[in-house]
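Propose amino acids for all 170 sites.
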């Protein structure tokens, strides 16, 4: 499957100089979407995953579909102020600013083996912040999964020694 040909680049979004990689064309193409989810499912077979942490917001699409296919619980790591209950939070840098992500304290069980999934790996800020939260509540990150990796931003370096997969690199 040639995913790269399906991914549209939107220049100067969300601010000048950013070349936004739009994955909506994948979710609009059922065959491509199914192929992406199958690639993630195949990789999960090599890791003992107990729970999926999907990153706000496009990671929710891939995490929910993957969780359904694998019969695994899906947890949302959300932007600050979007989750109810008792949460832990982590601030991180983006390629175009700063943000904060939260996770409900009870969403991960002690010792859970976790997959963190999102549409895009850029600087690694969001994923590394989510990993810090998973570790803080007693889980272990076993795998990071992304549809797209912007390799020139070297986000993988922020993810440490955890196995990381990306289906397309730009």
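Proposal:
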């Amino acid at each position: 499957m040639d995913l790269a040909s399906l991914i549209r680049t939107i220049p100067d979004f969300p601010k000048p100089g950013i070349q936004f990689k739009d994955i909506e064309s994948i979710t609009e193409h059922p065959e491509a979407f199914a192929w992406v989810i199958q690639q993630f499912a195949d990789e999960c077979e090599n890791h003992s995953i107990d729970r999926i942490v999907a990153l706000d917001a496009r990671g929710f699409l891939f995490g929910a579909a993957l969780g359904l296919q694998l019969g695994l619980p899906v947890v949302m790591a959300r932007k600050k102020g979007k989750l109810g209950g008792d949460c832990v939070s982590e601030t991180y840098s983006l390629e175009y600013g700063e943000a904060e992500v939260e996770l409900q304290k009870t969403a991960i069980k002690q010792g859970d083996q976790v997959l963190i999934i999102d549409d895009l790996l850029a600087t690694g800020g969001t994923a590394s912040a989510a990993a810090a939260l998973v570790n803080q509540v007693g889980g272990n990150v076993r795998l990071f999964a992304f549809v797209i990796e912007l390799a020139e931003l070297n986000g993988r370096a922020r993810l440490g020694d955890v196995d990381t997969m990306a289906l397309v690199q730009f």
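The radius of gyration is 15 Å. The first helix runs from residue 24 to 27.
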